[in-house]
Amino acid sequence: MTNALITKGKTISVALAGNPNAGKSTIFNALTGGRAHVGNWPGVTVEKKEGRFKYKEYEFLVTDLPGTYSLTAYSIDERIARDYVIKEKLDVVVSVTDSTNLERNLYLLVSFLELGVNSILDLNMADILEQRKVRVNTKKMEELLGTPVVMTSATKKAGLNELKEMIIRSKDRKIQPLRIDYGKEIEGAIKKVKESLSGVNSPYPVRFLSIKLLEGDVEIIKEVGELGYERSVESAMHEGSRLEVGFGYDLETEIIERRYGFIESIIRQCVRRVPTIEEKLTVSDKIDGIVTNKWLGIPIFAFLLWATFQLTFTVGGIFADFIDTFFGWLAESSAIWFASIGAPGWLSSFVGDGIISGVGAVFVFLPTILILFAFLSFLEDVGYMSRAAFVMDKAMHAIGLPGKSFIPMILGFGCNVPAIMSARTISSEKDRLLTILINPFISCSARLPVYVMFTGIFFKSNQGVVLFTLYMLGIVVAVLSAKLFKSTIPKLKGPVSPLVMELPPYRIPTLKGVSIHTWERGREFLKKAGTIIFAGVILIWLLASFPMSSEYASETTLIGLIGKFFAPLFRAAGFPFWQAAVALLFGIIAKEIVVGTFGTLFGGEGALSASLLKYFTPLSAYSFMVMSLLYIPCIAAIGVIYRETNSWKWTTFITVYSLVIGWVMATAVYQLGSLFI
Amino acid sequence: MEYALSESLEDYLMGIFIVSKQNKVVRLKDIAKERQVKLPSVVNALKELAEKGLISHERYSYVTFTDKGLNEAKKLYDRHKTVFKFLYEILGVTEFIAEKDAHRMEHDLTASTLDLLTKFTEFMEMSSKRGESRFPEQFKYFMETGKFPEIKSKEGGIMEKTKEKPLSELKRGESGKIVRIKKGIGALKGRLLTMGAVPGTVVRIKKVAPLGDPIDILILGYHLSLRKEEAEKIIVQEI
């Protein structure tokens, strides 16, 4: 962010760090009023939120770091947080902690302090502490930690001004990295490694580097090696193994244990009456007793999902239909108006079939996305989502995915677009990518009209059975593709990432939190995916309109020619005529358009079924439905896949892959079927 | 052996085997990466191996084993793994050192010593799996405390207080005190430690998911869910 108006001294750059569920986003929203710039951290798909606000004569730039438990580079999130704090030269890092669970929460702060970062400890959720009659001696804590301490309660908007004041007061603080005493043996080892590191040019304090080398931090080992200090790495290894053999120490364990020991002593000195575990968790425990109950757990999950699904797609569907009708009316009216002023046909078509239907194609998804994400963020903020993953983990594990992939899989039956967006809660990038890539094969509701049209004509007596086989086929292809990708693509290889997931206490979400989150999702969809969808619609319009002399989407237009060109390819699948190829091309905009296209090309609703009967046999109708199910995800799905993977490579890969799979399966169905019929 | 392989050629043969286990095809650059050498050295080594009839390698193509070569490579690899296991699992040397020393031992020790070492490792593995011998546990106890574990009864069991088991074996409602996290599980260990699973912490199994996995444990006053696979890596003392 370079802004000429921002002058140093008047602008304070602040990062918010903290454990997941510590109330970091609530603090962020309370500080910035919810206005945030949402983007990605460079090179990865982890979300980056930035906001700004003014207080007194200062302008604050706030960055919301990913929620992490420590600063050792176990996950991308942690690496991002560490790199950002070290390399960005921030004025202040606010460590947001859940003060009802200080022990684990303070670990991250201690890591910052050891790193020599100018930090403020924010004891959040102070209201709950008060309810439980727990007193924290913040003065003493400040002394012991050597860092300012503020108490806030973000949901009640308490302590926010104190926090701002504290940021201003401590922005220029000179600080020394915190020294934890690691005991005689380890300190000896640290000293030796430190000596071997003398003169090293690194943004990290030397003591911090030495400790991390002894801990065996992979990233730091790499970094130190690249600085030409391989000898220090070896020295650390040597010291480590000396201690391990000599004293039976496991250094990594010992070092982390000492840090926890330090935290425990701080808590003992500063917190009066630590509540016992039991009284702290009763309400949450009672809810959990039902929600994750052996017999009720899965039915409750199924019901919540069903309710979400129903409400999203029925209520969302009403709005979506309304939007659809509205844009349809708009397109028609524009055509009438253009005709009345005698404008050329192509202009009318460009505005009607191109621009208006392009904008419509984007907006038609918006209600579904907003309603769905309102539900999902509600469930997330309540704390239910991690329970859902807990309940479903084993079932998903069987097909090589974590429990959190279940929700996107199910949502895919409604619409792949929000389903793919909902994969974002999966923390491991590998699992998330895999979940996104297989989602388009789950048969979304837009494919249903295609099935209904064909089964209504060709499979009147067993429509249900045929529908069922198509849905099953989608699931089977998704599961098998997951297996295939996992065994062949290096980036996706390996077992499911280990499950080490916190089940946070249940909390009552705030309307503000949920609505901000929902709106962010909607806005992102419009901005990023929307552009691609719109561009796709315009492209198809161009293909269907040129040359100008031909009728829209007819045999002699570009799209007709493309259709003719590709038609022979589908001979093996049983539908080698250009109308089918064109319908499939239009289906890329949205799969239900396949139906409308056939309507147009085969001369209106009335003649449609007669024409279809002439062109298709039951077998080729089935293979065409298989093709419609599997080939290229619609343009909106492609848009969100790009948005969520942040990579053209993966987007192209899955587009091509699904096209090939669609063709192969349709052909296989037709060829095998021909043998028996 | 009718042909003598030099130490370095043995390493190459094993290196190619490791690469072939990881990848479908063996490329020169993968071997170079595995052995941490430059490409020209790989080319020379491959030439020698091909002359000895252990591999075949046409210019510009992938490296493949001959039957003889595959046999030889497998033998070398198994030998390396056993020596590594002896150092790493039985003696408890760090991964890094174990790898380094295994490399030296397999070249320098007499064949008969290596053989016995292999047998000994197998024996220790079996006995600890069946739980019939307490040698491995006793040795660990000895390493940690410098004392020989006191024998509690005639059956030869170690004192009750040192009875350790993986967290995954505790039942719902039972508690345990963490003794250590198993080695050799990569980043997972650090992750568990930083989330508070340090020795001395008391954990309790609060719930088991409806399908029997994962489990929910109470640790440092918060709930953490782990698969049994992960819980197995946490060694606790039942309390």
Characterization of the model:
The complex is a heterodimer of chains A (677) and B (239). Chain A has 677 residues and is of the alpha/beta class. Chain A is built from 29 helices and ten strands. Chain A has helices at residues 24-32, 76-87, 102-114, 126-131, 138-145, 160-170, 184-196, 206-215, 218-226, 230-247, 251-270, 277-291, 297-340, 345-363, 366-382, 384-397, 406-411, 416-422, 429-438, 448-458, 463-488, 511-545, 558-566, 578-587, 593-601, 604-615, 618-630, 635-645, 648-676, and strands spanning 11-18, 37-40, 47-55, 58-64, 92-98, 119-124, 135-136, 149-151, 271-272, 500-503. A seven-stranded mixed beta sheet of chain A has the order 2-3-4-1-5-6-8, with helices on both faces. A two-stranded antiparallel ribbon of chain A has the order 7-9. In chain A, α7 packs across α8 (206-215) and α20 (448-458) runs antiparallel to α27 (618-630). The longest helix of chain A has 44 residues, at 297-340. Mean pLDDT of chain A is 87; it is low at 1-6. Chain B is 50% helix and 15% strand. Chain B has a six-stranded antiparallel beta sheet with strand order 3-8-4-5-6-7. A two-stranded antiparallel sheet of chain B has the order 1-2. In chain B, α1 packs across α2 (28-35). The termini of chain B are far apart. The model of chain B is unreliable at 152-160 (pLDDT under 50). β10 of chain A pairs antiparallel with β7 of chain B.
